[in-house]
Amino acid sequence: MADREHSLLVAGVSGQIKVERAIAEIRSARPVAVSGPQGVLIATSVEALDGALSADLDRLSAGHARLLLAAPRLRHLGLERDAAGALALPTIDLARITRLAVDTNARVDAPVSALSAQDEAALELMRLALVLPALVVFPVISGAGLDALVQVSMADIMDYRALERMALTLISRAPVPLEGAPDSEFVIFRGGEGLRDQAAVIIGKPHLSKPVTVRLHSACLTGDLFGSLKCDCGDQLRHTARFMAENGGGILLYLDQEGRGNGISNKIRAYRLQAQGYDTYDADEVLGFDHDQRGFAFAAEMLKQLGVSIVRVMTNNPIKIAALESAGLTVAADQRIVGRLTNENLRYLESKRDRAGHMIEDLVQASHALGAAKD
Fold first, then answer.
1. Whether the predicted pLDDT of 372 surpasses 60
2. What is the pLDDT of residue 165?
3. 65 with 57: CB under 8 angstroms?
4. Which tens digit of pLDDT belongs to each residue from 227-237?
5. 113 strand-pairing partners
6. CA 153, chain centre distance (Å)
7. Does residue 34 contact residue 136 with C-beta atoms inside 8 Å?
């Protein structure tokens, strides 16, 4: 066999490829098989369940199915716990599963057991696929039907994020003049967060041997593109570009991490809950997500590949500063970046300050002062 053919064969059966195929299956509402030391589990996203699939799974599971829920969801259901858990499913009851997974008024209706390492891997696969972190699993009793499913090992799932960071690759680059920052270049990287591409926007001509002004900006479709009043993301994005253009240049990393890493569909689910009175973090917890699902180690790797080692960070988020330092970059300084205050985003900003430690106290105080003056 030729060397090239051998390389392609090896790549085709690699763990990363298998995880990516499993992600595609989950997002296409199909079950996958997760293998481990205890055998093989069939795993199905709760989002995928309908009447026909529930009936098929009920027949195959033979009463051994379980519903896996993340810790934040279990806390919302009334349990004080920091770890995910499982509830027995004697039958695949779609109404019960839906109630436990997404109903805002639901409460735990059965004992909750701890997850095995294999269960944890199946739950991680749901997070990688950007679906709700809720799934039905059951052990394979016989090999019937297994050949039709994509199979992936628990080890490959748990190694996937780290391997993706290591595989981060610069793919393309070109000048793209921007309004307010005409001397700009887009550099596209592949990897870091699964099947997604990431953009580094080099604005002006920053001196890479000196501290470089940088911002880690997580994509926000509603704010960046449509000007949503519920957040300050779009204002921060455009202010950053103008500031860098007028102050010696910089690098803006535009990261595909919609909804604090939960994905656009879950972000819109959270917005619906916010309309019902939940704050931004409580809404995520109702859906089973922790306060922030994002990682920033791959963002630091993007900067390193661009030749950056010392940064001035434009952020209000102390987690981003700590992440860059942990990844080996020197943070020489940090500065706040603010957007407009609106009636619609004030509670969101207060929640970020009070519950996630965002450094925007002056901004929120100014808002209250403005409101008092109007009164």
1. no
2. 83
3. yes
4. 999 888 999 99
5. 86
6. 22
7. no
What is this structure's pTM?
0.87
Give the pLDDT score at 271. 94
Ordered domains of the chain (ranges, CATH)? 3-162 (3.90.870.10), 168-257+294-374 (3.40.50.10990)
- Spatial separation of the C-alpha atoms in residues 181 and 314, rounded to whole Å: 17
**Residue 69: exposed, middle, or buried by beta-carbon count in 10 A (0-12, 13-18, 19+)?**
buried
The tokens describing 276, both together, are 């019902």
Supply the residues annotated as catalytic. 292, 294
CA angle, residues 201, 205, 208, in degrees to nearest 5: 90
Which among 256, 257, 258, 284 has a CA at the least distance from the CA of 270?
A: 284
When the pLDDT of each residue in the chain is averaged and rounded to a whole number, the result is: 89
Instruction: Give the closest residue to 20 by CA, choosing from 263, 194, 198, 256.
Output: 194
Which SS3 state, helix, strand or coil, does residue 74 take? helix
Q: Among 23-27, 189-193, 201-205, 361-365, which is the least confidently predicted range? A: 361-365
Residues with Cβ within 8 Å of residue 115, at least 6 apart in sequence: 68, 83, 84, 85, 86, 123
Residue 297: Cβ-neighbour burial (10 angstroms; 0-12, 13-18, 19+):
middle
What burial class does residue 172 get, using C-beta atoms within 10 Å of its C-beta: 0-12 exposed, 13-18 middle, 19+ buried? exposed
H-run or E-run covering 251 = strand 250-255
CA pair distance 243, 207, nearest whole angstrom: 16
180-188 contact pairs (CB < 8 A, 24+) = 180/238, 180/241, 180/242, 180/245, 181/241, 181/242, 181/244, 181/245, 182/245, 183/245, 183/249, 184/241, 184/245, 187/306
Q: How far is CA 114 from CA 96, 273, 278, 369, in A?
A: 20, 28, 28, 49
Q: In what order do the strands lie in the sheet with 169-175?
A: 169-175, 184-190, 197-203, 250-255, 212-218, 310-314, 330-335
Q: Helix or strand or coil: residue 3?
A: helix
The 8-class DSSP code of residue 26 comes to H
- Around Cβ 162, how many Cβ atoms within 10 Å? 12
Per-residue b/e over 220-241, b at no fewer than 16 CB within 10 Å? bebbbeeebebbbbbbbbbbbb
